[in-house]
Amino acid sequence: MMLKIKRVPTVVSNYQKDEADEGRRAGGCGRNCLNKCCIPGAKLPLYAFKKQNNSPGDKEFSGHEKQEAPVAFLDSLVLGEWEDRMQKGLFRYDVTACETKVIPGKFGFIAQLNEGRHLKKRPTEFRVDKVLQPFDGSKFNFTKVGQEEVLFQFEASEDGEVQFHPNAPIDVDNSPSVVAINVSPIEYGHVLLIPRILESLPQRIDRESFLLALHMAVEAGNPYFRLGYNSLGAFATINHLHFQAYYLAVTFPIEKAPTKKITSLDVGVKISELLNYPVRGLVFEGGNTLEDLSNSVSDACICLQENNIPYNVLISDCGKRIFLLPQCYAEKQALGEVRAELLDTQVNPAVWEISGHMVLKRKKDYDEASDENAWKLLAEVSLSEERFQEVNALIFEAIACGLDDGNANLLEDPDVKPRSHEELNAINKSSRHAMVSGTQECIVLQ
Description:
Layout: E1 2-3, H1 17-23, E2 43-49, H2 73-87, E3 100-102, E4 110-113, H3 115-120, E5 150-156, E6 163-169, E7 178-181, E8 191-194, H4 207-220, E9 225-230, E10 243-247, H5 253-256, E11 259-264, E12 269-274, E13 282-286, H6 290-306, E14 311-316, E15 321-326, H7 329-334, H8 340-344, H9 351-355, E16 357-360, H10 363-367, H11 371-381, H12 385-401, H13 421-431
Helix pairs in contact: 4-6, 6-12, 12-13
């Protein structure tokens, strides 16, 4: 089944376009970047979302009973502005010209031939054996992009109502979160959510940033617009905190995979385990509030980060379902444990590939794409069953403790019982046994 890019009908409103463009003035270093040299006095559109206190499963989140926004968030703002940047030639290649197909078989893996991304994407500039690394301003980071690549600022509304300001000053003292284009896109509408961009945060999830990403999924209100996150060591290529998002009008294989409930938290969050899928992972859904769901996932992510376990996250179904996927492909790759035929594809399985959207770099691999080949690659990404259960023990212990505020406890006994401190220390060591030690640089081809 061949897929064609489905352009969403967009209304690129001019909303004082000329005036807004004047705010993106040249100055400073001359590149009109997002650094301190060019930011003072600059202006960008601002979308202020309404903070939600409801569960993401409530009717208000369906989009039908939500207060109508002053501008359509997905159609006009994200995709409309993305189209505008495409017309201005800001992308490194035309992703809408890439061949895409659904691979025949029961899983419905999606294959895309994207030779431009392989040839023109930025190389990784840091070690792949450490999930947490300090921010390095000398490396590429998002403060170096041009302001023309930024679509809008994305912040919580101060008065509790959705607002849109076409020409808002950038508050340097309160670092804004922004949505920018990905100049090496994987799919239509591929953007980056960059929380608190001026704070120069490394690629590590915290509670505040993850909640912001969930709010973006809720505002989009479309199950075909998903957000993803790659940690260092799980094929993030830039050590500056960011989430990715794009629009693809097909169900991902991971979204169709069966699950088995493991436990529920007293804040209403249900945690399940993926079944019959090549990559082992957890699924979080429910929650008494959006923040309850967000905190449960972000606490699990923080646990993985602090234990040096690479992982990917997919935010699906308008923020209602979140997939957490610890992985070990880069460490296997560095240790020479990945089969040559898989390495030859030069595919780095990050969140989108793990979700079933296989971005292929060679025509040969695209022509020969099959369920079996996709499964083989993704099976190498997954932790073993034993190690997955060990990692789950760490995660459940972290969630049960609630980290800082102790407000998330297990309502039911999980299949994986929390362990003693001695056992956790042993698990921590064993779950990291394959991580590459020493000071050598591990280069992963992108």
